[in-house]
Write a structure and sequence with these properties.
The complex is a heterodimer. Chain A is an all-beta fold. Chain A contains no helices and eleven strands. The chains are: A mainly beta, B mainly beta.
Amino acid sequence: QKEVEQNSGPLSVPEGAIASLNCTYSDRGSQSFFWYRQYSGKSPELIMSIYSNGDKEDGRFTAQLNKASQYVSLLIRDSQPSDSATYLCAVIYPAGNMLTFGGGTRLMVKP
Amino acid sequence: DVKVTQSSRYLVKRTGEKVFLECVQDMDHENMFWYRQDPGLGLRLIYFSYDVKMKEKGDIPEGYSVSREKKERFSLILESASTNQTSMYLCASSLGGQINYGYTFGSGTRLTVV
Protein backbone atom coordinates (compact mmCIF):
# COMPACT_ATOMS: atom_id res chain seq x y z
CA GLN A 1 0.00 0.00 0.00
CA LYS A 2 1.50 3.27 -1.12
CA GLU A 3 1.03 5.81 1.65
CA VAL A 4 1.70 9.46 2.14
CA GLU A 5 1.00 10.63 5.68
CA GLN A 6 0.39 14.14 6.92
CA ASN A 7 -0.93 15.49 10.19
CA SER A 8 -4.35 16.91 9.34
CA GLY A 9 -3.95 19.82 11.77
CA PRO A 10 -4.98 22.52 12.08
CA LEU A 11 -1.50 23.88 12.60
CA SER A 12 -1.83 27.34 14.08
CA VAL A 13 1.07 29.81 13.95
CA PRO A 14 1.22 33.55 14.64
CA GLU A 15 1.87 35.98 11.82
CA GLY A 16 5.59 36.34 11.13
CA ALA A 17 6.51 32.92 12.55
CA ILE A 18 7.92 29.92 10.69
CA ALA A 19 5.35 27.27 9.80
CA SER A 20 6.72 23.73 9.51
CA LEU A 21 4.67 21.15 7.62
CA ASN A 22 5.75 17.51 7.54
CA CYS A 23 5.04 14.51 5.36
CA THR A 24 6.22 10.90 5.48
CA TYR A 25 6.02 8.32 2.72
CA SER A 26 6.24 4.57 2.65
CA ASP A 27 8.32 3.68 -0.42
CA ARG A 28 12.05 4.25 -0.08
CA GLY A 29 12.47 4.24 -3.87
CA SER A 30 10.39 7.38 -4.43
CA GLN A 31 12.16 10.03 -6.48
CA SER A 32 9.89 13.04 -6.90
CA PHE A 33 8.08 15.07 -4.26
CA PHE A 34 5.68 17.98 -4.48
CA TRP A 35 3.87 20.45 -2.25
CA TYR A 36 0.51 21.87 -3.25
CA ARG A 37 -1.42 24.68 -1.58
CA GLN A 38 -5.21 24.57 -1.61
CA TYR A 39 -7.36 27.45 -0.44
CA SER A 40 -10.83 26.61 0.81
CA GLY A 41 -13.16 25.93 -2.13
CA LYS A 42 -10.34 26.21 -4.66
CA SER A 43 -8.21 23.69 -6.53
CA PRO A 44 -4.66 22.65 -5.53
CA GLU A 45 -1.81 24.81 -6.78
CA LEU A 46 1.74 23.49 -7.16
CA ILE A 47 4.14 25.56 -5.04
CA MET A 48 7.28 23.43 -4.69
CA SER A 49 8.91 20.36 -6.18
CA ILE A 50 12.03 18.60 -4.89
CA TYR A 51 13.90 15.68 -6.35
CA SER A 52 17.15 15.30 -4.35
CA ASN A 53 18.15 15.23 -0.70
CA GLY A 54 18.61 18.54 1.03
CA ASP A 55 16.91 21.91 0.92
CA LYS A 56 15.35 23.82 -1.94
CA GLU A 57 14.40 27.43 -1.40
CA ASP A 58 11.92 29.57 -3.32
CA GLY A 59 11.14 32.93 -1.73
CA ARG A 60 9.60 32.35 1.69
CA PHE A 61 9.21 28.61 1.02
CA THR A 62 11.81 25.91 1.68
CA ALA A 63 11.27 22.26 0.86
CA GLN A 64 13.43 19.74 2.68
CA LEU A 65 13.90 16.14 1.62
CA ASN A 66 15.47 13.30 3.60
CA LYS A 67 15.20 10.07 1.63
CA ALA A 68 16.92 7.96 4.29
CA SER A 69 14.25 8.90 6.83
CA GLN A 70 11.51 9.03 4.19
CA TYR A 71 10.20 12.44 5.00
CA VAL A 72 9.72 15.69 3.19
CA SER A 73 8.87 18.98 4.83
CA LEU A 74 7.82 22.47 3.86
CA LEU A 75 8.92 25.52 5.82
CA ILE A 76 7.13 28.83 5.37
CA ARG A 77 9.09 31.77 6.74
CA ASP A 78 7.46 35.02 7.84
CA SER A 79 4.02 33.39 7.69
CA GLN A 80 1.18 35.63 6.55
CA PRO A 81 -2.59 35.26 7.05
CA SER A 82 -2.77 34.74 3.27
CA ASP A 83 -0.78 31.51 3.77
CA SER A 84 -3.76 30.03 5.62
CA ALA A 85 -4.72 27.04 3.48
CA THR A 86 -4.45 23.28 3.29
CA TYR A 87 -1.06 22.00 2.14
CA LEU A 88 -0.95 18.71 0.26
CA CYS A 89 2.17 16.58 0.00
CA ALA A 90 2.44 14.39 -3.11
CA VAL A 91 4.93 11.65 -3.96
CA ILE A 92 5.68 9.69 -7.12
CA TYR A 93 6.21 6.03 -6.42
CA PRO A 94 8.77 4.14 -8.52
CA ALA A 95 6.29 1.64 -9.91
CA GLY A 96 4.43 4.26 -11.89
CA ASN A 97 4.43 7.86 -12.95
CA MET A 98 1.49 9.02 -10.89
CA LEU A 99 1.24 11.20 -7.83
CA THR A 100 0.00 9.79 -4.55
CA PHE A 101 -1.40 12.55 -2.34
CA GLY A 102 -1.43 12.87 1.41
CA GLY A 103 -4.57 13.99 3.16
CA GLY A 104 -3.25 17.51 3.69
CA THR A 105 -2.41 19.72 6.66
CA ARG A 106 -4.57 22.74 7.39
CA LEU A 107 -2.47 25.77 8.29
CA MET A 108 -3.93 28.77 10.10
CA VAL A 109 -1.84 31.92 10.40
CA LYS A 110 -3.26 34.25 13.02
CA PRO A 111 -2.71 38.04 12.79
CA ASP B 1 1.52 28.77 -18.02
CA VAL B 2 -0.42 25.57 -18.49
CA LYS B 3 -4.09 26.17 -18.38
CA VAL B 4 -6.57 23.48 -17.46
CA THR B 5 -10.14 24.60 -17.98
CA GLN B 6 -13.18 22.90 -16.54
CA SER B 7 -16.39 23.86 -18.26
CA SER B 8 -18.54 24.53 -15.19
CA ARG B 9 -17.69 25.92 -11.76
CA TYR B 10 -21.00 24.89 -10.17
CA LEU B 11 -23.51 22.35 -11.40
CA VAL B 12 -26.81 21.09 -10.00
CA LYS B 13 -28.29 17.93 -11.49
CA ARG B 14 -31.17 15.62 -10.67
CA THR B 15 -30.82 12.00 -9.59
CA GLY B 16 -30.71 9.70 -12.61
CA GLU B 17 -29.51 12.34 -15.07
CA LYS B 18 -26.52 11.70 -17.31
CA VAL B 19 -23.88 14.29 -16.47
CA PHE B 20 -20.91 15.39 -18.55
CA LEU B 21 -17.95 17.19 -17.00
CA GLU B 22 -15.54 18.63 -19.54
CA CYS B 23 -11.85 19.38 -19.13
CA VAL B 24 -9.55 21.01 -21.68
CA GLN B 25 -5.81 21.68 -21.39
CA ASP B 26 -3.81 23.89 -23.74
CA MET B 27 -0.21 22.74 -23.33
CA ASP B 28 -0.11 19.45 -25.22
CA HIS B 29 0.08 17.34 -22.06
CA GLU B 30 -0.07 13.59 -22.57
CA ASN B 31 -1.56 12.70 -19.18
CA MET B 32 -4.95 13.71 -17.85
CA PHE B 33 -6.72 12.78 -14.64
CA TRP B 34 -10.09 13.07 -12.92
CA TYR B 35 -10.31 13.25 -9.13
CA ARG B 36 -13.07 13.86 -6.67
CA GLN B 37 -12.44 15.54 -3.35
CA ASP B 38 -14.63 15.16 -0.29
CA PRO B 39 -14.09 16.45 3.27
CA GLY B 40 -12.05 13.98 5.29
CA LEU B 41 -11.43 11.71 2.30
CA GLY B 42 -8.85 13.72 0.41
CA LEU B 43 -8.26 13.42 -3.32
CA ARG B 44 -9.48 10.18 -4.84
CA LEU B 45 -8.56 9.17 -8.39
CA ILE B 46 -11.50 8.21 -10.60
CA TYR B 47 -9.93 7.70 -14.04
CA PHE B 48 -6.82 8.71 -15.90
CA SER B 49 -5.51 8.69 -19.45
CA TYR B 50 -1.99 8.57 -20.85
CA ASP B 51 -2.96 9.08 -24.48
CA VAL B 52 -5.81 9.70 -26.89
CA LYS B 53 -8.50 7.01 -26.73
CA MET B 54 -6.71 5.45 -23.77
CA LYS B 55 -8.21 5.22 -20.29
CA GLU B 56 -7.37 3.49 -17.05
CA LYS B 57 -9.47 3.02 -13.93
CA GLY B 58 -8.37 4.75 -10.79
CA ASP B 59 -9.36 3.93 -7.24
CA ILE B 60 -13.09 4.70 -7.46
CA PRO B 61 -14.33 4.24 -11.07
CA GLU B 62 -17.76 2.81 -10.21
CA GLY B 63 -20.58 4.92 -11.59
CA TYR B 64 -18.27 6.90 -13.89
CA SER B 65 -16.89 6.62 -17.39
CA VAL B 66 -14.52 8.81 -19.40
CA SER B 67 -13.80 9.79 -22.96
CA ARG B 68 -10.63 11.10 -24.56
CA GLU B 69 -11.16 11.58 -28.27
CA LYS B 70 -8.65 14.43 -28.59
CA LYS B 71 -5.39 14.97 -26.74
CA GLU B 72 -6.50 18.23 -25.14
CA ARG B 73 -9.92 17.09 -23.91
CA PHE B 74 -10.84 14.60 -21.19
CA SER B 75 -14.48 14.17 -20.29
CA LEU B 76 -15.95 12.57 -17.18
CA ILE B 77 -19.39 11.04 -17.51
CA LEU B 78 -21.75 10.16 -14.70
CA GLU B 79 -24.00 7.61 -16.34
CA SER B 80 -26.87 8.00 -13.87
CA ALA B 81 -26.16 10.62 -11.25
CA SER B 82 -26.78 9.72 -7.62
CA THR B 83 -26.72 11.84 -4.47
CA ASN B 84 -23.50 10.16 -3.28
CA GLN B 85 -21.77 11.64 -6.31
CA THR B 86 -22.23 15.13 -4.91
CA SER B 87 -18.64 16.33 -4.67
CA MET B 88 -15.90 18.63 -5.94
CA TYR B 89 -14.50 17.22 -9.19
CA LEU B 90 -10.98 18.15 -10.19
CA CYS B 91 -9.32 17.61 -13.54
CA ALA B 92 -5.52 17.63 -13.82
CA SER B 93 -2.92 17.21 -16.53
CA SER B 94 0.80 16.54 -16.73
CA LEU B 95 3.57 16.02 -19.25
CA GLY B 96 4.52 12.49 -20.18
CA GLY B 97 8.10 11.23 -20.14
CA GLN B 98 10.59 10.07 -17.55
CA ILE B 99 10.52 13.12 -15.30
CA ASN B 100 7.27 14.12 -13.70
CA TYR B 101 6.99 17.85 -13.11
CA GLY B 102 3.77 17.54 -11.18
CA TYR B 103 0.15 18.03 -12.09
CA THR B 104 -1.67 21.20 -13.02
CA PHE B 105 -5.25 21.26 -11.78
CA GLY B 106 -8.30 22.91 -13.23
CA SER B 107 -10.42 25.19 -11.07
CA GLY B 108 -12.83 22.39 -10.18
CA THR B 109 -16.52 21.70 -10.63
CA ARG B 110 -18.70 21.55 -7.55
CA LEU B 111 -21.48 19.13 -8.47
CA THR B 112 -24.64 18.81 -6.43
CA VAL B 113 -27.02 15.95 -7.20
CA VAL B 114 -30.52 16.45 -5.82
